[in-house]
Amino acid sequence: MTVSMKNLSVTIGNQLVQIQHDGVSQITIMDEPLGEPYEHKKRRVMNDEVHLLQNLPMMDFQEKIAMLFRGPLTYQGFRLPVSSVFEVEIEVASCRRLDELPLLSVMKSVIDGLNMEIVANDQLIFASTIEYKNLKVKPSPTKPPDLLSVALFERISNKRRLVHAVDDVPIYVVPKQEPLFFDYDNDAQWSFDVDDRRDSIADALHADGMRIAAGGPIKLTMNFEGRVKDKDLDNMAKVYFKLLEKLGLQAQDVHSIHLTKEEATKSCIRISLN
């Protein structure tokens, strides 16, 4: 069946942004991909120092991710962290529900575990996927409720080479958690540029009839093109996931996420939900 695409123009500041959508599952935004700013960079504090408290279970989980890769790669002779162009594939099998394991936050947590420990910078990750599988049978109380598989690939031209993979590791998966900041007495300044731009696009799509129906499983694909070489893939995805939530998407319905970024002269964000 042929899907009819609608064309939409949105004025944001002094710029006209062109958008195409089918009203239910396909969106193309002709705009430079936005990235979610890091919290500590959104605040103006004395001497540029920000005191924060990270979630300790999350930090422990990320250190375990690094350990799963550090030993084998060091044994193979790699000098860590490595620099190249990478792809990451993640699979989570769990008896826990997706409201406990939002996949984009799990992906972010795994990538943070690899960042600067295994790969020199997470901006070097140009593609990332995550899949969820429900375990019908709960493991024994003495074992973690999750099985995690992670594969790291090096992209070489149009091919890719497996760097290292771990399969079905029993582990308690901890999604990315926002840190707690201690800069309340330093007149923190917040930047709303990304939020305002994203919300303007979401409002225009909603007014033009774009709705995402509840229910899953949903495979979410987001492709980012433009000046994206120095942008984090997962941070760009976070911006547009929030946009989709404003249009009706529920995180617990998303069972699979596929992200890619590509350096290009023309900018756009392509989103599909299947």
Question: What are the SSEs and their pairings?
Answer:
Elements: E1 6-12, E2 15-21, E3 26-30, E4 52-53, H1 56-75, E5 86-94, H2 103-114, E6 125-134, E7 146-156, E8 159-170, E9 180-181, H3 193-207, E10 218-226, H4 233-246, E11 254-263, E12 268-273
Parallel strand pairs: 5-6, 10-11
Antiparallel strand pairs: 1-2, 2-3, 3-12, 4-9, 5-7, 6-11, 7-8, 10-12
Helix pairs in contact: 1-2, 2-4, 3-4
CATH class of the largest domain: Alpha Beta
Span between N and C termini? Answer: 14 Å
- The total domain count is 2
Q: What is the CATH H-level superfamily of the largest domain?
A: Holliday junction resolvase RusA
Task: Categorize the overall geometry.
Answer: globular
Average pLDDT across residues? Answer: 90
Number of helices: 4
Radius of gyration: 20 Å
Q: For the report, how would you describe the main beta sheet? A: 10 strands, mixed
Residue stretches low in confidence (pLDDT < 50, at least 5 long) are 42-47, 186-190
H-E string = EEEEHEHEEEEHEHEE
CATH topology-level name of the largest domain: 60s Ribosomal Protein L30, Chain: A
Would you report the number of β strands?
A: 12
CATH A-level architecture of the largest domain? 2-Layer Sandwich
- Helix share bin: 10-25%
Secondary-structure-based class equals alpha+beta
Strand content: 25-35%
